[in-house]
Design brief:
Largest sheet: 8 strands, parallel
Structural class: alpha/beta
Number of helices: 12
Number of strands: 11
Oligomer: single chain
Helix content: 25-40%
Strand order of the largest sheet: 1-9-8-6-5-4-3-2
Distance between the termini: 25 Å
Length: 336
């Protein structure tokens, strides 16, 4: 019996926990429809995560997924940070604002977040998923002991084999097409940029774990193709952005419907890690800045400050509008 069927999940569809989009209402709607809903808690502390988990459970008594980021903390480089902020200063000045004077690691990695671990053990969601890497053996064992099934993103065979060896229950094969943050374990290592089709089939044949296909999948035909490759399910993120239950704002929805959505871009300028986005003023600036960014998530500290300054002035062209290569196939409809 497959992992999803063992949990009573009828449909081989997982809603990806894309930051800035996933909500308790969206996750509950997906799970209530027979698939697997997801929430992302990487950007919030344990107290906020508790509210989100309780929010889903208020609307749904079926399994859902809670996603955390497991990045290795980046050593801060003050000189690099100041150079980055100096380069951004004209962008802030255009909106009558000043860049931050210093940058901070605004997101705490699950590698060191004991409060989040304690919360997940206490609340025991049916599934916990990892992005950017794997936690240590003690955290994996503790979550398994609490009854959680575990997923981990892999962008290549080595990452998938590491997940299998660590005891992960299923691997999410994230192709180059996927929207949002690329789950590569080491962002400084060479990236083979494997597409969803090749990666899914490779992992099905060689990694030894059940595989979930992710990246560029937007409809039933794409889901069927993933299953034909041997995946147990398909994970969709961009397909859910236009749903009324998502938290995407009007500008995000309009950008998704614009013809420019045909040409998504991979950028590290917004957050400090490669992420696929709809093209906008911020991504264009990132292609020309010509400086090394300060790393993740310090770069995101600067990026969020700029996004807020621009939005306050009525400019939405700097927003983090994550989307995959299938964005032009988006359809507006309820999640169910």
């Amino acid at each position: 019996m497959s992992l999803l069927k063992s949990l009573g999940i009828r449909l081989p569809i997982i809603q990806a926990p894309m930051a800035g989009v996933s909500t308790a209402e969206l996750a509950a709607a997906v799970s209530n429809a027979g698939a697997l809903g997801s929430i992302g808690v990487a950007a919030i502390k344990a107290a906020g995560a508790r509210e989100m988990i309780c929010g889903v459970r208020d609307l749904c008594d079926l399994p859902f997924n809670v996603n955390v980021f497991v990045h290795q903390p980046t050593q801060q480089d003050v000189a690099r940070e100041q150079a980055w902020l100096s380069a951004m200063a004209p962008l802030f000045e255009a909106f009558g604002a000043q860049p931050p004077t210093t940058l901070h690691p605004i997101y705490r990695s699950f590698v060191k977040d004991d409060e989040m671990l304690a919360l997940l053990i206490e609340t025991a969601p049916a599934i916990v998923s990892f992005h950017f890497g794997l936690p240590d053996a003690s955290r994996i064992s503790a979550l398994k002991a609490a009854g959680c099934k575990l997923l981990a993103t892999a962008t290549n065979l080595d990452e998938a084999l590491a997940a299998t060896k660590a005891g992960i229950d299923a691997v999410v094969a994230q192709g180059w097409e996927a929207g949002g943050h690329r789950g590569i374990f080491d962002p400084d290592a060479p990236d083979s940029c494997l597409g969803t089709m090749a990666l899914t089939r490779l992992l099905v044949r060689q990694c030894g774990s059940p595989v979930i296909a992710a990246g560029g999948i937007m409809d039933g035909q794409g889901i069927r193709a993933a299953l034909d490759l041997g995946a147990i399910a398909a994970q969709l993120g961009t397909a859910f952005i236009a749903c009324p239950e998502s938290s995407a704002d009007a500008a995000y929805r309009a950008a998704l419907a614009d013809p420019a959505a045909m040409n998504t871009v991979m950028t590290s300028a917004i957050s400090g890690r490669p992420a696929r986005s709809l093209p906008n003023i911020f991504t264009q600036w990132g292609e020309t800045v010509g400086l090394p960014h300060p790393g993740y998530p310090m770069t995101y500290d600067a990026g969020k400050a700029l996004i807020a300054a621009a939005k306050a002035a009525g400019e939405t062209g700097y927003a983090a509008q994550w989307a995959g290569q299938g964005a032009a196939l988006s359809r507006t409809m309820p999640a169910a």
